[in-house]
């Protein structure tokens, strides 16, 4: 089988460090009956060791050449290959109790993370390799420079844990940045929820649209509808100072005043 040339348009950087592969598989801890979906299996660095523990695995691969390689290497009864863009895949088709894993291309990581929120109720956990900068934003606390819309929207829906860094040398070709492994566990029915998820998302997006502006400036006409003191939030704060709970409070106050997304 001829060597595969990494394609920039797909953001391909193939994991080749077996020690890192082993650490990732141990972190995922696959069990035989798991309903696992791998996004971007590439040259199957993770696929093969995952299948050592699983009865069956589903892989989503956008590159038709790599998809063909996967079908050639693994039997269809062990590996189901879906040749598609993960951003276009309806994950609800796979059922409930999903475990999603993958070395996500940097160019689609944030859009894909947001897209997967819609099926979080079907997911047990997610383990992803991402750019370290993205993972740092995912786990960032209010008040830090990394805290962002991504932080709020994902922490609203998941418990998120940064597991460990992965150096560029673990890949071929090596990326220009350090990567990191993140674990995401969807929060259950007892989680804090806004009265209107869409309005909550709109408030967060608007608040972070101009990070340097105070909330009273960026939220405009909504400012007078928000009981700032009751929420423990100041109108002179910037978005990066507001916790997830604070944003839920703002959204609920607006909802109670008749504002809709």
From TrEMBL:
Catalytic activity: adenosine(1518)/adenosine(1519) in 16S rRNA + 4 S-adenosyl-L-methionine = N(6)-dimethyladenosine(1518)/N(6)-dimethyladenosine(1519) in 16S rRNA + 4 S-adenosyl-L-homocysteine + 4 H(+)
CDD domains: AdoMet_MTases
Record: residues binding S-adenosyl-L-methionine: 13, 15, 40, 61, 85, 103
Record keywords: Cytoplasm, Methyltransferase, RNA-binding, rRNA processing, S-adenosyl-L-methionine, Transferase
Gene3D superfamilies tied to this protein: Ribosomal RNA adenine dimethylase-like, domain 2, Vaccinia Virus protein VP39
Subcellular location(s) per record: Cytoplasm
EC number of this enzyme: 2.1.1.182
tRNA-binding listed as a keyword: no
UniProt-listed InterPro entries: KsgA/Erm, rRNA_Ade_diMease-like_C, rRNA_Ade_Mease_Trfase_CS, rRNA_Ade_methylase_Trfase_N, rRNA_adenine_dimethylase, SAM-dependent_MTases_sf
Entry GO CC: cytosol
HAMAP family reported for this sequence: 16SrRNA_methyltr_A (MF_00607)
Family: Belongs to the class I-like SAM-binding methyltransferase superfamily. rRNA adenine N(6)-methyltransferase family. RsmA subfamily.
Protein name stated in the entry: Ribosomal RNA small subunit methyltransferase A
Species in which this protein is naturally found: Zwartia hollandica
Lineage, opening ranks: Bacteria, Pseudomonadati, Pseudomonadota, Betaproteobacteria, Burkholderiales
Gene that produces this protein: rsmA
């Amino acid at each position: 089988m001829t060597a595969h040339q990494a394609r920039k348009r797909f953001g391909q950087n193939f994991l080749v460090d077996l020690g890192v592969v082993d650490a990732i598989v141990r972190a995922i801890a696959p069990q035989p009956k798991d309903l696992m979906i791998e996004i971007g299996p590439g040259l199957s660095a993770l696929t093969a060791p995952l299948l050592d523990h699983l009865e069956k695995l589903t892989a989503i691969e956008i590159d038709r050449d790599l998809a063909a390689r996967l079908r050639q290497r693994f039997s269809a009864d062990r590996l189901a290959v879906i040749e598609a863009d993960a951003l276009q895949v309806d994950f609800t088709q796979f059922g409930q109790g999903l475990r999603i894993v993958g070395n996500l291309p940097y160019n689609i990581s944030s859009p894909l993370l947001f897209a997967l929120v819609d099926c979080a109720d079907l997911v047990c956990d997610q383990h992803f390799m991402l750019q370290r900068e993205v993972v740092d934003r995912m786990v960032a606390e209010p008040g830090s420079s990394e805290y962002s819309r991504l932080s709020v929207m994902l922490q609203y829906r998941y418990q998120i844990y940064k597991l460990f860094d992965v150096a560029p040398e673990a890949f071929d070709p090596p990326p220009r940045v350090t990567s990191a492994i993140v674990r995401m566990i969807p929060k259950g029915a007892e989680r804090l929820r806004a009265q209107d998820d869409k309005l909550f998302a709109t408030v967060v997006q608007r608040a972070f649209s101009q990070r340097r502006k105070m909330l009273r400036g960026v939220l405009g006409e909504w400012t007078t509808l928000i009981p700032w003191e009751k929420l423990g939030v100041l109108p002179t704060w910037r978005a990066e100072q507001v916790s997830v709970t604070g944003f839920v409070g703002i959204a609920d106050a607006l909802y109670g005043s008749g504002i809709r997304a």
